[in-house]
Amino acid sequence: MPTRVRENFFGNWRNKGVALFFAVTIWFVAYQSETQSEAIPVRLVLVPRPEGQLIIRQECFDSRQELVPFDRTVILSVTGPRKQIEKLRGEGNIRDVRFPVDAGVDPESRRKKVELTGAAFSIIPPGVTVTTITPEAIFLTFDTAEARDFPVEPIYQLLPEGMETESAKIEPSSVPLSGPKTILKEVRVMAEARLGWDERFEGDVPLKLRFPDTLDEALVNNTVHFLGPTRVRLSVRLRARSPVKTKWVANQVACLGGEAGVVRDGDDVEVWLSLPRA
Q1: Are the CB atoms for 128 and 84 separated by under 8 Å?
Q2: What pLDDT, in 10s, does the model give residues 248-262?
Q3: pTM over cut 0.70
Q4: Which CATH architecture has domain 146-240?
């Protein structure tokens, strides 16, 4: 009995080994060919065309069909052989996909609607089908790129009470900026200095952009760039203000039917009054 059992287990081991090899191979091929579905996230890198165009706003519809900022992430729902899907999944890192778009606007709109299709994604391997794309479309706003010099304007913090500044000397007096043309129209370049009680301030100060509240801060920061220095040398003298309350004097004189004015000559201040004759 033990001999027969041994023959059943170990007899014809070559044939059994070959059969096992083919069984494993067939199973592996069938496993790799099994159809699988997956959601693959990719990061869209929009490339505006022609050169000289900028994308200043990217939007898409959310689940409530409201336009919201587009964060450049696209979800591709795909189906295909397991081997191809695993290759597409990679190591789990989000891939960057270049996506050229032609500048323009849709009729009766300030935006351009760009529909996303599977043909635009070259990373999809043969045999894999894109079933859905989220979002299905994005809405882009374009502007013309521009670069020009901007004068640097001084702005002061902690100006002591009773003191005022003379004309500031700024080096360089202007710096170049690049960005969308319509946004640059609203931007000013400021050199911010923190003053004290010294008669003179001199030092390197940072440059800041100032713009109306109607402009989105993130949009300005993402699209407007310094092409030159971001710091300047600023020097300015401080002096005491005139002790004469000229506005109060003028109001009092006006009540008497007269006129008042101030003439400033350097550090000298001359107040003139003109009263009606009795």
Answers
A1: yes
A2: 555 655 665 555 555
A3: no
A4: Beta Complex (2.170)
